[in-house]
Design goal:
The protein has 259 residues and is α+β, with helices and mostly antiparallel strands. The chain has a domain of 96 residues: Elongation factor Ts, dimerisation domain (Tetrahydropterin Synthase, Chain A). Helix content is 47%, strand content 22%. The chain contains ten helices and eight strands. Strands 1-2-3 form a three-stranded antiparallel β-sheet. Strands 4-5-8 form a three-stranded antiparallel β-sheet. The chain has a two-stranded antiparallel sheet with strand order 6-7. Helix 1 packs across helix 2 and helix 8 packs across helix 9. The chain starts with a helix and ends with a strand.
């Protein structure tokens, strides 16, 4: 409020000129705080009416109190709405989206930075497209998951999809299956396995075989379809899906968290 009064005084009561002053203040704050850490904020998800495309966005700020402010919450919702309505391909395209006043989404973010005095940024923007997309938002408002399913059918699909999304939230898999694990990670795990075996005094000729065994354990713990289902460890996620609907599987997922 005081900033608004100061801007009006500086602009001699001219509202439009005062708005320009406030916007410039926002740009100055954006520049000054560009390197500041943003460890608080909000993560929102939404799936289209057809259930085939999901969006997840993370709008971050510097402190928790700011993340609770109504203006910040409204801005996060505006970012999500723009993502859904435009199906923007990139974060840059999303931030350039014109709002009802004709100004870009980035302009509105900069304005709120000037008003609040903190760095605000869209730190994540992800899309999942599949035969069936299910979303999950954690209760803290700072974690969201999208999971894409194929070979879907039947009433239980959404419920099972939610279970899988919650599994992703809790267990943080790095890939859908072992085929999705990058070569650098595989090489690192093999080297770690060899070194562990070496320190245990295992023969040098056995190190490769032991490391491969440890790698298989890594796949079981770190890739979604091979993980044990948290609610029923007697089945893997792959088996859970197949039991629900023959051939059903996960095509991709996105896990976005703040903090």
């Amino acid at each position: 409020m005081m900033d608004c009064k100061k801007a009006l005084t500086e602009a001699n009561g001219d509202f439009e000129a005062a708005k320009d002053i406030l916007r410039k203040q926002g740009q100055k704050i954006a520049s000054k705080r560009a390197d500041n850490a943003t460890s608080e904020g909000a993560v929102l998800t939404q799936v289209n009416a057809e259930g085939t495309v999901g969006k997840v966005i993370a709008l971050a700020c510097e402190t928790e109190p700011v993340s609770k402010v109504e203006d910040f919450k409204n801005l996060a919702q505006a970012v999500l709405s723009a993502a859904v309505s435009t199906n923007a391909a990139t974060k840059e395209e999303l931030l350039a989206t014109p709002q009802t006043d004709g100004r870009s989404l980035q302009d509105h973010i900069t304005d709120l930075m000037g008003k609040i005095g903190e760095k605000i940024d869209v730190v994540s923007y992800e899309t999942v497209s599949a035969e069936k997309v299910v979303a999950y938002n954690h209760s803290n408002g700072k974690l969201g998951v999208l999971v894409g399913l194929t070979n879907t059918g039947g009433k239980e699909v959404t419920e099972v999809g939610k279970d899988v999304a919650m599994q992703i939230a809790a267990m943080r898999p790095i890939a859908v299956d072992k085929d999705g694990v990058d070569a650098a990670t595989i090489e690192r795990e093999i080297e770690i396995g060899k070194e562990q075996a070496r320190q245990e005094g295992k023969p040098e000729e056995m190190l490769e075989k032991i490391a491969q065994g440890k790698l298989n354990k890594f796949y079981k713990e770190s890739t979604l379809l091979n993980q044990e289902f948290v609610k029923d460890p007697s089945v893997t996620i792959a088996k859970l899906l197949d039991n629900t609907n023959k051939g059903m599987t996960v095509t991709e997922f996105k896990r976005v968290a703040i903090g």
